[in-house]
Amino acid sequence: MAAFVPPALRSSPPSPPSTSKASPNLTPDSSMAPAATNGIITPPPEPSTTPISTVELCIAHYNEDLSWLSPFSANCSIYSKGKQPAETSIYARFKHLPNIGRETHTYLTHITQNYDSLAHVTLFLQGNIHDINQGTPAHTDLTLAELVSAALRLSPGAVLPVGVSATFSDFDGIQYKHDWIRRRGHALTRAKLTPRDFWSWMFAGTADEKVPMTEVRFVQGACYAVTKEAVHRRPREWWGRLLRYFEELAETNPEEGHYMERMWYAIFAPDVAVVVQRREGEGNGGRGGDRDGASE
Questions:
Q1: Which of 63, 221, 255, 269 has the smallest set of CB atoms within 10 Å of its CB?
Q2: Mean pLDDT score of the chain, rounded to an integer?
Q3: What pTM, to 2 d.p., does this model score?
């Protein structure tokens, strides 16, 4: 895939809502990711000869039990925003971060601080990808060993979405389910920008310049295996600008973090994640996965 470099970035103050369309059976492009079965991404069967040392696990931790990481603890960079685990020396890296920006802030911190020394493949994962969280389903039913094995087989520039696939097309505002708001939305800080404006701010440098948008693919939970070449499609300055946005928001649960859950795949793999232009007259969709409770 040809390298993707965004337009020149212009300064813009932080302030980037939107709706989702769930597509449980959507399969990402086979050139970038394995096939999906019932919406769950499954790795190909071929064994890998790539050294395990070339894979790093970036874990967005809060208070989750991290024992599930034990087989690969030496490959883990733990970024904790909650209680410190009892044992931290077993990990390659342990850092405590302020509890802001959800997993987005964690991932961006890792990328910007390690941009020139990223592992061949980084698995971006949340604190426990197998937990059912307040009625929200697990991110994946694959074991950690299966995920690492799949990551080891990625070729340069490739991206592997891990989890239940969906599409997002309602860029004018996420319509949250009442049940999700009741269970998990009380701490949500609403964004000043719509998802469309936030997207424009990211890719065009300003929310005033509207970037034509149709639909993007993503996986619920923002769990991906990403090669360093995919990260390097965008310069460190681009990533740093996005990190500063969330640092300046300084919110624990900003709505922009939910936007980013829907946009990570498009950032890492635009040729695959951004769906072709919608034909004139087609509707906007609007169904959403249960993870963020978008309306169905």
A1: 63
A2: 79
A3: 0.78
